[in-house]
């Protein structure tokens, strides 16, 4: 899917949540909403929005957290996959406790872009936060929210941080 310059600008600058609906035709219903959680303020807002969407749809809510280690080459010790997953499970539990949201949780080892697109295969909606990186960093490093908006087979809601 291609995002035009206006769609891309909305994803990165709109003062409200932005929904991107793929033009893929009818899909089977899965009765599942996915919330991407990474422990940040924007992902906490996305978790709350996903909980509301799941309730409105009568769907289950699944919280997905991807754990991934990017080695820099200067580490003395690198965490194991098991350690990363354990840290991720603690992070997700803390986010659910902080928001009061009840959900099925899934902590997956892998890059967030890949993990979220895979999770979206059997979802009716994917909800994630936008970190609001500066434009240059987003251009150089890529944006998980933009990647999901481009490649997810289901509608995606990107929850933006409040504007100052």
Descriptive overview:
- The N and C termini lie far apart (32 Å).
- The protein has 6 helices and 6 strands, in the order αββαβαβαβααβ.
- A 6-stranded mixed β-sheet has the order 1-6-5-2-3-4, with helices on both faces.
- The protein has helices at 5-13, 41-57, 81-99, 112-120, 135-141, 144-151; strands at 18-20, 32-36, 60-67, 104-109, 125-129, 156-159.
- The radius of gyration is 16 Å and the shape is globular.
- The model has no long low-confidence stretch (mean pLDDT 86).
- With 164 residues, it is an alpha/beta fold.
- α4 packs parallel to α6 (144-151).
Topology:
Layout: H1 5-13, E1 18-20, E2 32-36, H2 41-57, E3 60-67, H3 81-99, E4 104-109, H4 112-120, E5 125-129, H5 135-141, H6 144-151, E6 156-159
Parallel strand pairs: 2-3, 2-5, 3-4, 5-6
Antiparallel strand pairs: 1-6
Helix pairs in contact: 4-6
The description of the largest β-sheet is: 6 strands, mixed
Strand order of the largest sheet: 1-6-5-2-3-4
Classify the secondary structure makeup into a structural class: alpha/beta
**What share of residues are in beta strands?**
15-25%
- Give the total of beta strands: 6
Q: Short description, anyone?
A:
This protein is of the alpha/beta class. The chain contains six helices and six strands; from the N terminus they run αββαβαβαβααβ.
What descriptors fit this protein?
164 residues, alpha/beta, six-stranded mixed sheet, 6 strands, globular
């Amino acid at each position: 899917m291609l995002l035009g310059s206006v769609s891309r600008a909305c994803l990165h600058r709109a003062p409200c949540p932005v929904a991107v609906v793929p033009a893929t035709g009818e899909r089977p219903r899965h009765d599942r909403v996915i919330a991407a959680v990474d422990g940040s303020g924007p992902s906490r807002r996305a978790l709350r929005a996903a909980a509301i969407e799941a309730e409105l749809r009568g769907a289950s809510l699944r919280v997905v957290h991807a754990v991934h280690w990017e080695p820099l080459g200067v580490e003395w010790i690198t965490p194991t996959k098991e350690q990363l997953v354990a840290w991720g499970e603690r992070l997700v539990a803390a986010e659910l406790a902080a928001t009061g949201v009840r959900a099925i949780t899934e902590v997956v080892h892998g890059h967030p872009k890949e993990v979220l697109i895979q999770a979206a295969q059997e979802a009716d909606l994917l909800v994630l936060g936008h970190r609001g990186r500066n434009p240059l960093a987003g251009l150089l490093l890529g944006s998980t929210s933009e990647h999901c908006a481009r490649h997810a087979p289901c509608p995606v809601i990107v929850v933006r941080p409040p504007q100052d």
